[in-house]
Design a protein that fits this description.
Layout: H1 30-37, E1 43-44, H2 56-64, H3 78-88, E2 95-98, H4 100-112, E3 118-123, H5 127-135, E4 139-144, H6 152-158, E5 163-169, H7 181-190, E6 196-200, H8 215-220, E7 226-231, E8 244-247, H9 250-259, H10 267-278, H11 282-306, E9 319-323, H12 329-337, E10 340-341, E11 343-345, E12 350-357, H13 361-371, E13 374-375, E14 379-380
Parallel strand pairs: 1-10, 3-4, 3-5, 5-6, 6-7
Antiparallel strand pairs: 2-8, 7-8, 9-12, 11-12, 13-14
Length: about 375
């Protein structure tokens, strides 16, 4: 070999586990859509955010509190975790925080998964379960939904000696459907002891169904090997600040602390979350938003069905799922040109479906106008 020459056998620079991963597609900013299509008004019904922004008390705190933004936030989120622990009736060391519930999923994956481990979840479902499994070189075991709901029986059958995590999205994103207390009880009676079950309850505060289980009260506190995920991104209106949390054993929370970036949840996010929980009007505001969502979801369903878009149900969160039966991107793009952003679900494992979030009356009116122009095949009525 000549001096200075290099061997042609060079290790790949990028990890091989990333080769099959398509980056998460979050969609264009509203401002860019307005510019591209020459629109003066664009409504976003794509990402399941709450339509009203932060609670009034959180807005007040964010607008009046003086932050030392040259200082790092409290890396332990002590005040937030202490308040959550008190409200939930758990120990502070059984609460872990993160940059949204999906951030906590990433930390769980990083703390637990190694190449050769297997992860079971329903599919189509929240894309992060698949992506984070692949990122760590572990093996995803997606299980098809049954009647657009998680098939817990089939998931139990998929569990093997290499299974480390089972994700249960309840209610499921993107279908909006839920598994009942009876179904979850039966699952926990049979799930092997070596498996950690993660129940994603990001939409917990919206649910009014009496047979929907509270995973913290009914499974964690009864000694099940379970992690419960929740979020401030939905009904609390803090999606832009990125704050979520998990309730889990002290062992799991300690492991999460080892892999979580030191300052992942900002000072403003922590303050807004604390205010959302502790304000005098917090419980009443939760109920107002829950009641509004009930009405808005029903109205959204009527609008979609009036234009031949059959929704999956019963849906219990703040969004609806429609399977078009054909590639959903043309329909998405035609709606986009009309100023309405919905979610095509290719990354969620449902390339023929869309997800539409319940919005305000004005947003629904603009959706109705757009649907008078666009048809499910992605065609304009003028085509």
């Amino acid at each position: 070999m000549r001096r200075g020459s290099r061997s042609r056998t060079v290790r790949p620079f990028i990890r091989a586990a990333l080769e099959s991963i398509e980056p998460y597609e979050g969609g264009k900013p509203i401002e860019e859509v307005e510019r591209e299509y020459g629109l003066s008004r664009v409504v976003k019904l794509a990402s399941n955010e709450g339509p009203f922004g932060p609670f009034p008390i959180a807005r007040q705190v964010l607008s009046t509190q003086s932050y030392e933004l040259n200082r790092y936030p409290d890396g332990s989120a002590y005040q937030l975790r202490a308040l959550l622990a008190e409200r939930l009736g758990v120990d502070i060391d059984e609460v872990a925080h993160g940059a949204g519930a999906d951030g906590v999923i990433g930390y769980l994956s990083l703390a637990l998964l190694e190449p050769g481990d297997e992860v079971v979840f329903g599919w189509p479902s929240f894309a992060t379960y698949m992506l984070d499994t692949l990122k760590l070189g572990a093996t995803p075991r997606p299980v098809p939904l049954r009647d657009n709901r998680y098939d817990l029986e089939a998931m139990l059958a998929q569990i093997g000696p290499k299974t480390k995590i089972v994700f249960i999205c309840n209610p499921n994103n993107p279908t909006g459907t839920m598994n009942s207390r009876e179904e979850l009880d039966a699952y926990f009676e049979r799930v092997p002891g070596h498996v950690l079950t993660v129940i994603d309850q990001a939409y917990f505060e919206y649910i009014e169904e009496p047979d929907y289980p509270d995973a913290i009260e009914e499974y964690f506190k009864r000694g099940k090997r379970v992690v419960t995920l929740r979020s401030f991104s939905k009904i609390y209106g803090l999606a832009g600040l990125r704050v979520g949390y998990a309730v889990a054993s002290k062992e799991i929370c300690a492991a999460l602390a080892k892999v979580r970036p030191a300052f992942d949840v900002s000072s403003t996010a922590q303050a807004a979350a604390v205010a959302s929980l502790s304000g005098d009007d917090a419980d009443a505001e939760l109920e107002r938003r829950r009641s509004y969502n009930r009405v808005a979801l029903a109205e959204l369903g009527r609008i979609l069905r009036a234009f031949g878009l059959e929704t999956v149900g019963p849906a219990v969160a703040n969004f609806l799922y429609v399977d078009l039966g054909v590639d959903s991107r043309p329909f998405f793009e035609q709606l986009l040109a009309q100023g309405v952003v919905v979610r095509p679900l290719h990354g969620f494992g449902a390339p023929t479906a869309i997800r539409v979030t319940a919005g305000t009356a004005e947003e629904h009116a603009l959706l109705r106008q757009a649907l008078q122009v666009v048809r499910p095949g992605g065609r304009s009525i003028s085509d």
